């Protein structure tokens, strides 16, 4: 009987993780490519959850179990490419048993003195949830697996002064292809994503249609993402890809629409409107309104006064 381990296991090094998985120590202490078929231990023995101090890029296929993420489970039977940044909690379900694929592990120190060390933050998919994995076509799988093969080949050769340059260039190729394929996925899943956008728009409309003031401030991006059950970064990247606007911009658009309604139909002061819309400072509201509408709130209201027909 497996002893329950309520606390996540924190792996500070790639060597420690590979040892826990029953694998040989890595050929390079800061980077390793693991073939899942080589894992001999039951991953449930590693712990119900674990935290890695390094990056993890995994492709899983023919997966018989599930990965638990937060309160839900994600079925990987179709296979998917997923990305994990350092210090994220990964929880594996006990029923995880038989799957194949690869995992690339690399420590932040491996890329620290290279441009990628600063640029890796731009790859938003490291902040996606497991349920937002990248699904690959057969052609895309061949491309990704060819990069994994190149990395494996380089790791199997004698380490020299050029090894790190070559390996980092391969990681960059992998990340850039992943960026491209995610862009394709946003497009090919437009119907699903359009339903998500419609749900978000309805949620925002409901919030701004309430008569009571937004005493807790404007709805935050994370609030919208939690409501839609997606990660904030995935929602933001999806919206930018399909609409050209971020989540925050969508929130602001709904806010401005509400502000226009109030300005044109009430006698509330600009400050009162600002407070009712969740702004702590009226100046912030006025600044945002002018940026979006190109005129100040008072100028907008005055234009409606001038347009009203004279009473006979």
Q: Can you walk me through this structure?
A:
The structure is a single chain. This protein has 312 residues and is of the alpha+beta class. It has 2 domains: 9-188, Regulatory protein AraC (Jelly Rolls, Sandwich); 191-307, Homeodomain-like (Arc Repressor Mutant, subunit A). 48% of the residues lie in helices and 14% in strands. It contains 12 helices and 9 strands. It has a 5-stranded mixed β-sheet with strand order 1-3-8-5-6. The chain has a 4-stranded antiparallel β-sheet with strand order 2-9-4-7. Strand 5 and strand 6 form a beta hairpin. Helix 9 (247-265) packs across helix 11 (282-293) and helix 9 packs across helix 12. The model is unreliable at 63-77 and 93-97 (pLDDT under 50).
In summary, what is this structure?
With 312 residues, the protein is an alpha+beta fold. It has helices at residues 14-20, 108-111, 115-119, 138-156, 163-188, 190-209, 221-228, 232-243, 247-265, 270-276, 282-293, 297-307, and strands at 9-11, 31-35, 49-52, 55-61, 66-69, 72-75, 80-84, 89-92, 100-106. The strands form 2 sheets. It has a 5-stranded mixed β-sheet with strand order 1-3-8-5-6. It has a 4-stranded antiparallel β-sheet with strand order 2-9-4-7.
């Amino acid at each position: 009987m497996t002893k329950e381990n309520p606390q996540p296991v924190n792996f500070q090094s790639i060597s420690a993780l590979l040892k826990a998985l029953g694998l040989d120590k890595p050929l390079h202490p800061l980077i390793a490519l693991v073939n899942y078929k080589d894992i001999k231990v039951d991953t449930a023995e590693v712990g119900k959850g674990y935290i890695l101090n390094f990056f993890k890029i995994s492709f899983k296929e023919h997966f018989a179990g599930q990965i638990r993420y937060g309160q839900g489970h994600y079925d990987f039977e179709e296979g998917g490419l997923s990305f994990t940044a350092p210090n994220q909690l990964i929880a594996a379900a006990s029923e995880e048993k038989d799957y194949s694929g690869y995992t690339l592990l690399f420590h932040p120190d491996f890329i620290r003195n290279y441009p990628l060390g600063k640029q890796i933050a731009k790859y938003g998919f490291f902040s996606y949830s497991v349920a937002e994995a990248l699904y690959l076509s057969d052609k895309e799988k061949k491309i990704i697996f060819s990069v994994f093969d190149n990395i494996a080949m380089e790791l199997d050769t004698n380490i020299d002064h050029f090894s790190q340059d070559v390996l980092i260039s391969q990681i960059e190729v992998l990340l850039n292809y992943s960026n491209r394929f995610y862009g394709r996925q946003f497009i090919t899943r437009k119907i699903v994503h359009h339903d998500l956008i419609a749900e978000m728009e309805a949620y925002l409309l409901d919030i701004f249609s309430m008569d009571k003031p937004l005493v807790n401030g404007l709805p935050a991006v994370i609030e919208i993402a939690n409501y839609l059950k997606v990660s904030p970064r995935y929602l933001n990247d999806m919206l930018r890809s399909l609409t050209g606007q971020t989540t925050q911009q969508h929130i602001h658009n709904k806010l401005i629409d509400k502000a226009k309604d109030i300005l044109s139909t009430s006698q509330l002061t600009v400050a009162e409107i600002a407070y009712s819309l969740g702004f702590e400072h009226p100046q912030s509201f006025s600044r945002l309104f002018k940026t979006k509408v190109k005129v100040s709130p008072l100028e907008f209201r005055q234009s409606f006064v001038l347009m009203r027909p004279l009473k006979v």
